Amino acid sequence: MNRFAGRTVLITGGTSGMGLATAHRLVAEGAHVIITGRTRARLDAAVGELGPGASGIVADAADLGAVDALMETVRNRHGRLDGLFANAGTGTFLPFEDITETDFDHAVDVNFKGVFFTVQKALPLLADGSSIVINASWTLHRGNSVLTLYSATKAAVHQAGPGGPGPFGRVVAVQGDG
């Protein structure tokens, strides 16, 4: 099936897990998929696995300079995006009392700041009728002693996203109504 033929989709954190699985599905359905990853070796392996319907750009979602460079590269190579899957994320699974400031900063930088600014910086590239998918998590609804930090960062994304009062909800609605 080619229901995504002629479409270009950016997936952050596309070298493994849900990001890579989504990339496989979109490529199989005709999209050109751009995936990101932090390391060239993992990125090249994933792009090789995906085949000619995919390309990769090294970018760390926690580094806003890298996010700017990513969007500029996408603009120069593709001109536009038809979809964005803000999927890059990290997990620090420690009891509350063991979380350090370094753990906290890294989780917030990737899981919230990275998602927030990836969406913001992709907006000018999104074509009419495009879609934004944000990978949040069900963990914000469950109590678990080692998910405190992870859940907090995902709750922040949820509040900024379509289910919350934040700007992503308005942006998604505007983009979705095209």
Task: Walk me through what this model shows.
It is built from six helices and five strands. β4 (81-86), α4 and β5 (126-134) form a beta-alpha-beta unit. The protein has 178 residues and is α/β, with parallel strands linked by helices. Helix content is 47%, strand content 17%. The longest helix has 22 residues, at 101-122. The protein has helices at residues 17-28, 40-50, 64-78, 101-122, 148-160, 167-177, and strands at residues 8-11, 32-37, 54-58, 81-86, 126-134. Strands 3-2-1-4-5 form a five-stranded parallel sheet, sandwiched between helices.
Summarize the structure.
The chain is an alpha/beta fold and 178 residues long. The protein is 47% helix and 17% strand.
How would the global form be characterised? elongated
> What is the string of SSEs from the N terminus onward?
EHEHEHEHEHH
Q: For the largest beta sheet, what order do the strands appear in spatially?
A: 3-2-1-4-5
Q: From the alpha-carbon coordinates, what is the Rg to the nearest angstrom?
A: 16 Å
Instruction: Please report the number of helical segments.
Output: 6
Mean pLDDT over the residues:
88
**Helix content percent band:** 40-55%
> Which stretches are poorly predicted, pLDDT < 50 over at least 5 residues?
170-178
Distance between the termini: 24 Å
Structural class: alpha/beta
The strand count comes to: 5
Largest sheet: 5 strands, parallel
Strand residues, percent? 15-25%
